[in-house]
Every structure is written in C-alpha cells, then in structure tokens.
Amino acid sequence: MITYAVALEKGGVGKTALAVNLAAAFRQAGLDVLLIDLDAQASATHWLGIDVAALTADRSALGVFNDALTGRLTASGITDRVITTAGGVHMLAAHPQMAGLPSQLSAATLGGIFLLSEALDTLAQAPPYDVVVLDLPPARGPILGMALAAATRCLAPVQSEDLVIRALVALMESVTQVRGRRVNPSLQMSIVRNKYMPRSGADRVYDELLRDEYKDLLIETVIPVRAALRDSVAVRQDIFHYGGPEVAEARALFLQLVSELIKLDGQR
Ligand SMILES: Nc1ncnc2c1ncn2[C@@H]1O[C@H](COP(=O)(O)OP(=O)(O)OP(=O)(O)O)[C@@H](O)[C@H]1O
Ligand SMILES: [Mg+2]
After folding, report:
1. Could you tell me which residues come within 8 angstroms of residue 211 by beta carbon, excluding any fewer than 6 positions away?
2. How far, in whole angstroms, is CA 75 from its chain's centroid?
3. 194 lines ligand 1 (CB under 6 A)
4. By alpha-carbon position, which residue is closest to atom 29 of ligand 1?
5. With a 6 A CB cut-off, is 37 part of the ligand 1 pocket?
6. Segments making up each domain of the chain, as ranges
7. Please, which residues have CB less than 5 A from ligand 2, an ion?
8. Does the pTM of the predicted model rise above 0.90?
9. What are the pLDDT digits (tens) for 61-102?
C-alpha cells in the first residue's frame, strides 16, 4: 500500500482538488484506492457526493481514530466504515466533529502521531487497497504530524505566490522533523504545481525560485487553471465522471501524474 498525504498549511491551493482527482485517476488506472478525508470541512467527502449531514461522527474517519485512541482498532472496524463512491473510489469520510481531533490527539500518548500509521498497518496485513490518499486541512499540528508519519510521500500543491512558497518552506520543516526524529525516516516529498500560470513577471520569478530551490522535488506534470477542476465540485463529481469543457486535458494530466507517481513509488 502506497500512501500519499496531500498537504500544505495555506488554504485554497488545491489540496482537495488534487486528492479527489488523484484518487479517481488511480482508480482509472485500475487500482483500489482509499481516500481519507482528514479535514473537518469535509470538502473531499462532499465533492465525491457523500451526504455529510446524514453521516454520524462514528461512521466517519473519526470513528476509526476513536477506536485507535481506545485500543479497539481492527481491520474490519476500518473497512466497515468505508463508503464506496459512485466513481469507485473508497472513502473514509470526514465529519464536522473532526474539528476536535487535534486536541484529542494532543492529549494522547506521543501526541497520537502513530495513530494513522497503526490504522494503515492494521489494513496492510491483508491490504484491500493499493493506494491511500489523505486530504489534509490547511494547518500545521497533530493531524499533519500523524499524516506525515503514515505517508510514503507527501504531495504539496503549490502556486507561484509568496504566501504559498512560505507555506512550502514550513511544510519542508515538518517533513525534515518527521524524517530526522525517526518518526518516518523514509518519508518522500514532492511538489505539484497546480493552478499554475507562470506568465507574469512576478510569477516567473517564483517559478525560477521553485526550480532553483526544489528542482529535485518538482513533479514534471504541471496542472494549469482549468474550468473542469473548478466546476466539477459544483456537480460533486471527479473529473473522470464530470463531462464539462476542458475535461479531456485535465483527465490526461491526472493520468500522467499517476504514471509519474507509479514510476517514483512503484505499485504495491
Ligand atoms: N487547477 C485548477 N484549476 C481551476 N480551479 C482549481 C484548480 N485546482 C483547484 N481549483 C479550485 O480552487 C478552489 C480551492 O481548491 P481546493 O478546495 O482544492 O483547495 P484546498 O487547498 O483543499 O483548500 P483548503 O485549504 O480550504 O482545504 C476550489 O474551488 C477548486 O475547485
Ligand atoms: Mg481542502
């Protein structure tokens, strides 16, 4: 099982767009995918057509974390809570009560940093999924720590903007800590340029900076601003099920991103 944590503490950079459509693209490539929504805003859950209001906290990913916090974690406790979306991506949904998860984790032994790794290890004994994708909230803290501890690779969506680059520097610090403190020494890191249009002078400057500073971390596939990625959320479909304009290009780019990731991480 390969686990991708889509993270950056800056809001609105396209974490959820990337997580949802990357999960769908892996599914298109014939893999079994589990998408875990770790954001109390439940954007990914909503995007893939799940009725958040009809879901109890216990049926969401929060139920899994409560099991883990009370030593009741089992593989079936996880898979029983998984919802299969219309597009075939399996999902552990988010719930608004997940807003309290950071303080629950902080109060736990070791800040709960290994809870998600434990949950995924429980699944990995008979892995029902090839790929796990984590959608993170725009914040530093125990949820990010727990996700980076469990991930094979952290994927940061970035634009060529000052605040985004600063958030990237902060994320790199977290990744370095997670590696260095032996929490997850083999954690990999990649940068995905999303909503990208390095045309203006200022954009070109940041683009060069990214290439100079993070050359080895840059994913080659660049995702531009495209209506399909903005509008598919309104009809609550991933781009492989959405039929609006510009969707063919967006689909091709996400499939290209999947092949790049499979080249990097293999396919276990
Ligand atoms: N490549 C793109 N082209 C056009 N619109 C995009 C693209 N990527 C994301 N968007 C849109 O930008 C908005 C913000 O994206 P998204 O919700 O994925 O960001 P986020 O990083 O998850 O935000 P948050 O930090 O609040 O969770 C959404 O309306 C999304 O549909
Ligand atoms: Mg989001």
Report:
1. 218
2. 21
3. yes
4. 230
5. no
6. 2-265
7. 15-16, 43
8. yes
9. 999 999 999 999 999 999 999 999 999 999 999 999 999 999
